[in-house]
Design goal:
Layout (H helix, E strand, L loop, with lengths): L2 E6 L10 H10 L2 E8 L2 H13 L4 E5 L14 H8 L4 E10 L7 H11 L1 H6 L3 E6 L8 H9 L12 E3 L6 H9 L2 E5 L9 H10 L4 E3 L21 H12 L3 H16 L3
Parallel strand pairs: 1-2, 2-3, 3-4, 4-5, 5-6, 6-7, 7-8
Bound molecules: zinc ion.
């Protein structure tokens, strides 16, 4: 069985004290491949170093998360493009809209997203999207992100042109995302006791449209809530996916890994 963690932040300082041991443990757990998300200018070179240390096992997404918008300016686009051109680059991202944290105005966030998106078509790579709704009515990150993607011109050779990572939206958001050619990222939140609505939405979306992720060091599955998350928890998330879909763990692994390769290509 080969599992893929499609969304990890292994360069987070939470791993600094024991990164090599964490990496060994990931591979021992059957998670043979990881997409490292380098989503701030200060993380791009770190992502390259991690991928170089684990060739064929760690690939990278490069981009600017809305929370890091203030560390980026348009003059840095050529630098981002040069990272996107590297062999270890499999996607742009994560990029998107966040109304939960103070990540700038709607207009600023849409501009930051819009400045990065042309790199997908330029390098024939998908995008990893972040969307988090705010607490106030009308702060609908999914609606604003999905509406802006109506005009996105990237057309991939494979099934998916991007992923709504850490999907937490409604069924209407999921449906709109699928119609736009986006996969849905399923992580530890899928295992949380009271998350029935998310499980129903993901089941409706279908096993053929989901990829597994951790978003580590955040969002560990139910058994490890409050602790540091890492990609070795992917089999636990996969087991819950298998149970909910009524398939074997092998099937869940095989299908979600195939989906990850439809999204990022084989790496
Ligand atoms: Zn992330």
């Amino acid at each position: 069985m080969l599992f893929v963690d499609t969304h990890a932040h292994l360069n987070d300082p939470a791993f600094d004290a024991e990164r090599p041991a964490v990496m060994d443990n990931i591979f021992a757990a059957g998670v043979g491949k990881v997409v490292e998300i380098a989503c701030a200018p200060g993380e791009w070179a770190q992502g390259v170093r991690l991928a170089a240390a684990y060739p064929g096992r760690v690939a990278c997404a490069f981009g600017v998360h809305p929370e890091y918008g203030k560390t980026f300016s348009l003059s840095m686009l050529p630098e981002l493009a040069s990272f996107m051109s590297l062999p270890c680059a499999v996607a742009l991202g994560e990029a998107g809209i966040d109304y939960w944290w103070d990540a700038g105005t709607r207009e600023e966030q849409l501009a930051l997203l819009g400045s990065q998106l042309p790199l997908c078509a330029k390098f024939a790579k998908p995008a990893v999207f972040h969307a988090r709704n705010g607490k106030q009515p009308g702060q609908n990150a999914y609606a604003d992100l999905l509406a802006s993607l109506e005009r996105w011109d990237y057309r991939p050779a494979r099934k998916f042109r991007g992923v709504l990572h850490c999907f937490s939206g409604s069924w209407a958001d999921a449906r709109a995302g699928l119609d736009l050619g986006l996969a849905l990222g399923v992580n530890g939140t899928f295992t949380y006791k009271n998350n029935h609505g998310l499980r129903d939405t993901i089941k409706k979306a279908g096993l053929e449209n989901i990829v597994l992720e951790t978003d580590c060091p955040y969002l560990p599955p139910q058994s490890a809530r409050g602790k540091r998350n890492d990609p070795s928890f992917i089999p636990e998330i996969a087991a819950r996916v298998a149970a909910e879909f009524g398939v074997s763990l092998e099937d869940a692994a095989q299908k979600t890994t195939a989906n990850a390769f439809e999204l990022f290509g084989q790496f």
